[in-house]
Design goal:
3 domains, 361 residues, 4-stranded mixed beta sheet, alpha+beta, Gyrase A, domain 2, 19% helix, 6-stranded antiparallel beta barrel, 25 strands
């Protein structure tokens, strides 16, 4: 189905996933104290091809002037242009148990009026935590998934060219305070569910042949380390316990990029879908009215407006117990755009015909 979408020129990616198989406990849960920490910093992206911030973005101009002053170069901010530089916010997620020297991915987002970050390089930027301490230093070439092309009379933008990321662009400089692992520790499920908590409890107890796990609620399972085993060995065995996770019917839509992900168990109640669009074009062609020579008339500009209304023929689909994959395939065959497909899924959900949870990113 993805191949058909590509052949028809529709930039829609459909991925099938299902949760009805054995999964490691470490992939669906996390241990108490093993949380990630979010970091943020302010930086500059340089080397842009005229798509950076304009002179009206005062903080970018001052940032460049301050940076050059620290390097021993005194400049007048009023005489600077910043079209090749963009001010950005840099964010990263510090994983648990991260040690100095480890590398993490960082995300770059423009905060000025830059048009695109494509081809830019982030210069050294410290990332701080809520305590004000620097934990990561970020720098590197920015990768952007979108683009912007413009001329004097037209422009074309795809995705979000003012947001990018740097793979392994952050180096950990400081580790988080470490606490010894206690004999009793909680295991938190990523998706709370009483049935799943019960399954995880039973599988862990079967693995160790003893009552080492107790489900407290739908998201918490309390673990007690048995005698004669180290903390690391105990938690490693718990992580590798496999559980048959129940299937979850879910449709996830990324409206910015037109990506739709759905589970194989997602179905649709009987429903009819009408797909159509209305296009209104207005064209202005001013004309000059010239009076005859020696007449008392005056030369005037007469507006000429041409309005065209074009409505595509409505396309009707009748679905009876179909799956989302069959719906998307049918919409692709009639030439529906990614935006139309997303709108159809939202409308089916609003009508109560979609047997799944709908999540928008």
């Amino acid at each position: 189905m993805v191949g058909k979408s590509i052949r028809k020129g529709i930039a829609l990616l459909v991925v099938l996933f299902s949760f009805g198989f054995a999964t490691r406990v470490g992939d669906i849960a996390s241990f108490e104290g093993g949380r990630s920490n979010y970091l943020v910093g302010y930086g500059l992206v340089v080397g842009l091809k005229g798509t950076g911030d304009g002179k009206s973005t005062i903080f970018t101009v001052k940032s460049i002037a301050n940076m050059l002053n620290r390097m021993g170069i005194v400049v007048d901010p009023r005489r600077m242009t910043t079209k090749n530089v963009a001010a950005v916010m840099v964010s990263a997620k510090l994983p648990p148990y991260a040690k100095p020297g480890m590398r993490v991915d960082v995300e770059i987002s423009s905060i000025g009026d830059a048009k695109s970050l494509e081809g830019g390089t982030l210069i050294m930027t410290p990332l701080r935590g809520p305590d004000g301490e620097v934990y990561i230093i970020a720098q590197g070439q920015v990768l952007v998934s979108g683009y912007e092309a413009r001329g004097r009379g037209a422009q074309q933008v795809k995705n979000t060219p003012t947001v990018g990321y740097i793979p392994n662009g952050g180096v950990v400089e400081r580790e988080l305070p470490f606490q010894n692992i206690p004999d009793e520790i909680n295991l938190y499920l990523d998706t709370p569910s009483f049935s799943l908590a019960k399954l995880v409890q039973d599988r862990i107890n079967a693995e160790f042949g003893a009552q080492v796990a107790l489900a407290i609620d739908g998201s918490t399972i309390r673990l007690k380390k048995p005698e004669g085993i180290s903390h690391v060995d105990f938690l490693a065995r718990v992580e590798n316990v496999r559980v048959d996770v129940p299937s979850t019917a879910r449709v996830v839509i990324d409206s910015r990029s037109g990506v739709v992900l759905f589970g194989g168990d997602v179905t649709i109640n009987p429903v009819s879908v009408v797909v159509g669009s209305l296009t209104v074009s207005i064209k202005e062609t001013p004309e000059v009215s010239q009076p005859p020579p020696l007449s008392p008339g005056q030369t005037r500009v007469v507006p000429r407006t041409e309005v065209k209304v074009q409505e595509k023929e409505a396309r009707v689909l009748e679905l009876k117990g179909a799956t989302v994959s069959q719906l998307v395939e049918s919409l692709n065959r009639i030439g529906a755009t990614p935006r139309e497909i997303i709108s159809v899924l939202q409308a089916i959900k609003a009508a109560g015909a979609l047997r799944a949870k709908l999540e928008l990113l």
